[in-house]
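Recall the central idea of this unit: under ordinary conditions, the amino acid sequence of a chain determines the structure it adopts. In this exercise we apply that idea directly, starting from the sequence alone.
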Amino acid sequence: MFSHVMVGSDDIERSKNFYNSVLGVLGVKEPVVNVNDTGQTRLLYIHNDSIFCVTEPINGKPMSAANGSTIGFTCDSSEQVKELHDVAVANGGTSIESPPGLRNNTTGKKHLCYFLDPDGHKICGMYRCD
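Accordingly, the structure predicted from this sequence is:
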């Protein structure tokens, strides 16, 4: 359904360091660094036919995190959910909501973790167990 997800950052090097570490847990390689026609630097993390992008805002205004938005990354195990969370926190992320672990609700059983990246974007790691 999605070709890509893009988030903004005012500090592209900080974001690169953060996401290289965090997405490395999922086996994602270093990003393709792209400078668009108007001069903004973008990080393109390409993995399994999906692209996660981090960009300097095109409109020249400061970045802001989208309230109510969450970007979820698929994990291969409950252990990888925990590792994703721990690596994020060790690299400048902020743990939010409940600690990483099993949730059983109307959408089924799954292991989840939630954290904010250094720019305040809400990120989730999820492993479905049913």
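The CA atoms of residues 90 and 119 lie 15 Å apart.
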